[in-house]
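RECORD TYPE: protein structure
NAME: Cysteine--tRNA ligase
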Amino acid sequence: MTIKLFNTLTRQKETLTTLEENKISMYVCGPTVYSYIHIGNARCFVFFDVARRFLEYRGYEVNYVQNFTDVDDRLINASIETGLSVPEIAERYIEAYFEDMDSLGVKRATTHPRATENIQEMIEFIQGLIEKGYAYETNGDVYYRSLKKEGYGCLSHHSLEDLKSGARVEVNDLKESPLDFALWKAAKPGEISWDTPWGTGRPGWHIECSAMARRYLGDTLDIHAGGIDLCFPHHENEIAQSEAMTGETFVRYWLHNEFINMNNVKMSKSIGNVMSVVELRKHFQPLALRYFLLSTHYRNPMNFTEDTLKQADESVSRIQTAYENLQHRTLSAQVGEVDGSIVSQLEDLTSRFVAEMSDDFNSANAITVVFDGVRLANDLVSREVITEETGKLVVKWFETFAGTILGLIHSDGKSLEDEIEALIEERQQARKDRDFALADAIRNQLLEQGIILEDTPQGVRWKRK
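PREDICTED:
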């Protein structure tokens, strides 16, 4: 089954083909690490994590690069405000980013390059653009000549006239054109800086990704992705400078996810409705956040409300409970042949899931298929007799599609999470010791966490409320 992707550049779905057979080079713009990431940032990182997982399921070796912008105006401003150095601030929020992403089940990229680790590559890139006539130096700044590059505006589908009239341009008499953008910025007193042939300074934003993408993935990438807000000017400028430098097509497929609104209002720091992931994790289980971010097609806007998060929490708990109940039921199932009708149903579920994800990574419809799997699992659990082989087959289906690809269940091969298991064992020992007050206290502690215990002849069974 072919994979279709909606290419922002062509504004149509295209069949995925790769430069190298069974290999994909994929670059996703990472965070600027001056603060905690918000739920809008997380949509990009969670969704393209799932896209990568699905591509790996389909047999591709994915070289996945996601950068950190660890030097720019916002980090410098944070440094001035806090008295910490730019590297100290960057390190703090890179650690916070990984803590957030680990909780949301986002796999580490193949490479997480930092801008400050690639300064020499940027300097050489800029020098090459100057030599080719695409960039010019003035008073220690270096600017890119946007009007020299044929097709500038192709990604955002704007003409040069539209871009000129709509540009919000700072007063700068040093630029040849209002559309020219900074490749390098001369250092101000006290700022972090590096030495270059044209003076001391630091890189502009756009050059960072072009230089890092080229270093780690080559002149042409299969997929470049990010939030829709990056389409212009960031990705537009990446195309201009990269193709001017190499003479090659920079990216074959451009993918962009849409915004998240907060209670039907665009999320904006100016109005104070930005929700950080670290704050949301205090109130909702991380898998509920992940479920929410995957429950709408990535090219459609989303609306965040407390109710939608509560619904997401209930939905992901339904999936987890069905999976764990089936695991538990399988432990006491009888040995026997696999049920042929169940095999047929799983084949149908698999075919539908793969079809939805192959159609521009439609995670929302793929989740619908998972809930059909939930109904199948619940039906099996309710049967008087099932075979162990049948149960294991359905458990494996959940671990692959709800777990490995969507990342919506804890599928570590255990029927109990470590913390809950430890508490249950402690309660069992307390009962043996006839310390019923402690046993009841542990039961109540688990109940407060939404865990219900059932004492059965086969042992203690638990489920979420």
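COMMENT: The radius of gyration is 26 Å.
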